[in-house]
Model the fold of this input.
Amino acid sequence: MIDSLAAAEHLAVVSDFDGTLAAFARDAYSVSPEQRSVDALAALSQLPNTTVAVLSGRHLDGLKQVFPLREPILFGGSHGAESSWENSALTPEMEAHLAKKEAEIQEIIARHPGAELEVKPFQRVLHLRALELQDPDAAAAAYAEGVALSADGFPKTTGKCVVEFSATRATKGTWIEGLRARVGATAVVFLGDDTTDEDGFAVLNQPPDLGVKVGEGQTHAQLRVSDVHAVSDFLEQLARARAAHA
Done:
């Protein structure tokens, strides 16, 4: 698989951040990506006809706070609603939807202290990781309440200790498709660990593309690796193979 990717005319390497390049932490901004993965992505980004991107549920500014590399690496935030090469804006309808979801999440937080709200440009997110560490039963109850909230015709996504309400129908899949067209990639490898990454795996043409699922769970990806350390192993192998081919 790695040899065929390394031989692609134009290779795009796209990776999720949390749970893929970096292990989860109680404080979302105290995480550090695996240095071997960072070094491999940096090496790939310097090779000819090779595009490297980090695509995260975090908003762009938040992603750049925890990921140390910059250009020529590209960034996608808010599950594909934001791109580092363009500006996006909310409509009044989108703003009203987010305001309503924020108020409803705040009501859940009032009933379950320790639950948290994350405000992103295109999403409002109920976070329960910290509460789960303190009181798993309370976290489960808060999660159920979040899942029960109406999406009001907009997307709603559930993940690991999170319920996210979005004002955009952009996904990691639509972002990857846009990136492919933008850079003219003939092969795309996408690495991710969570349910939102399945939208990205679903748009891949495997082969020549390759989806890499990190951890357990059903997936559209053709390759599975165990954890963030195995991600580093994969990226290092890919960087060496691509450099040798170049």
Remarks:
- The mean pLDDT is 93.
- The first helix runs from residue 2 to 6.
- Residues 26 and 157 are 21 Å apart (CA to CA).
